[in-house]
Amino acid sequence: MNFAHIDGVVVSTDHWINGERISSSRRFDDHSPTDGGLLAQISRGTQTEADLALEAAAKAFPEWAATPVSERAKILQRMHDLIVERADDFARVESADQGGLLSYYLGERGIRRSASNYSAFAEMLLERTDSTFVDSTFHNQVSLSGAGPVVLINPWNGPLLLESWKIAPALASGCSIVLKPSEWTPLTASMLADVSAEAGLPPGVLNIVQGFGEEIGALLVSDPRVRRISFTGSAATARAIAAAAAPNLTPCSFELGGKSPLLIFEDADLDIAVQTAKRQYSNAGQVCLIGSRLLIAEQVYEEFLDRFARAMEGFVVGDPRDPTTDIGPLIHHEQFERVDGFVQRAKADGARPVFGGGPLRDDGSLYYQPTLLVDMEDGSEIVTEEVFGPVLTAQSFASEDEAIRMANATRYGLTATLFTSDEQRAERVAKQLDAGTVWVNCFWVRDLRAPFGGTGESGIGREGGEWSFDFYSEVKNTVTVK
Question: What Pfam families has UniProt attached to this entry (predicted)?
Answer without folding.
Answer: Aldedh (PF00171)
